[in-house]
What does this fold into?
Amino acid sequence: MTTSPVAEPAAKLDFVTRKPLPPEQLDTLSRDILALKKKLNAVILAHNYQLPEIQDVADFVGDSLGLSQQAAKTSADVIVFCGVHFMAETAKILNPDKIVILPDADAGCSLEASCPAPKLKALQETNPNFYTIAYINCSAEVKALCDVIVTSGNAVKIVNAAPKDRDILFVPDENLGSWVIEQTGRPMTLWKGNCYVHVEWTHASITRIRQQYPDAPLVAHPECTKAVRMLADEVCSTEKMVAYCKASPAKAIIIATESAMIHRLMKECPGKIFIPAPTDSCRCNECRFMKMNTLEKLHDCMLNLAPRIELPKHILERARQPIERMLEISARPVDNAG
Ligand code: 13P
Ligand code: SF4
It folds into this structure.
């Protein structure tokens, strides 16, 4: 028997780590943030996993690829990056002369933490023929050791464009890496890292929700395990999820990614119902790092122009090359991608 999906999504949008702001405070803070933005000639870039109230004051909300593209072309004097630390670092690498601030400097990422630069360097030294491809979820020091960067939105295209005579080392996400191997047929050595949020979904938890809502397609992020990806109708980056959901004739869609994505989807696809995929152990689906940013911290970082991203000159220069290579390959028409 099919259960009505209507009640589920609203309940799940109640973020476990958030203390809801009283409406007057929310209005005042949002107004002050917009005034500071004007005064500083700042641009606010926000990832799809940021709290709804942060998404709502941002100039651009998107995935890691869209955010890097926006950072590469901005004419603002100050970049306010609402995401995790490696994302703000990427914006700084692309804009070494601009001020780049973020609401909480401790907003890390389990993938970034899994791949320290000295360990990567030691592995690279075991094979001089390695061509190192890094998922953007890594530190600036790791980016500086790599040949090219990818995001979930362009990984297949970039791996297809990699030199055929090189052995690909793909870091740090083994799940994204194994999905890319499936898509491209290109063998790769995979670093053993994962996203602690996306590995929470299991074959059993997804099978249960699919049985509950048999007419709802499942969209999953490639950071999910293969056991989950194999049950999905679409595996894609968070930005491509928006395009898929807009185009899908389905009224209800199951989403296996971080919970704040649903705010963006509800705004872009009015009238559709989004069902957050459940895990076995919790009902949160939240990235605790993404949720370290709050509207208050966003306001304070703009007021104080801190925390600010600063990186050594040699890292800025070396890490810029693989990011620019990514942006260049990403912009190529599909047929010329390699
Ligand atoms: P996207 O680039 O698809 O938005 O993914 C970023 C991320 O951190 C996923 O966990
Ligand atoms: Fe990192 Fe996972 Fe959080 Fe994305 S959701 S920032 S991959 S820990």
The pocket of iron/sulfur cluster (ligand 2) is lined by residues 84, 109-111, 137, 195-197, 223, 258, 287, 289-290 (CB under 6 Å). Residues 19 and 294 are 10 Å apart (CA to CA).
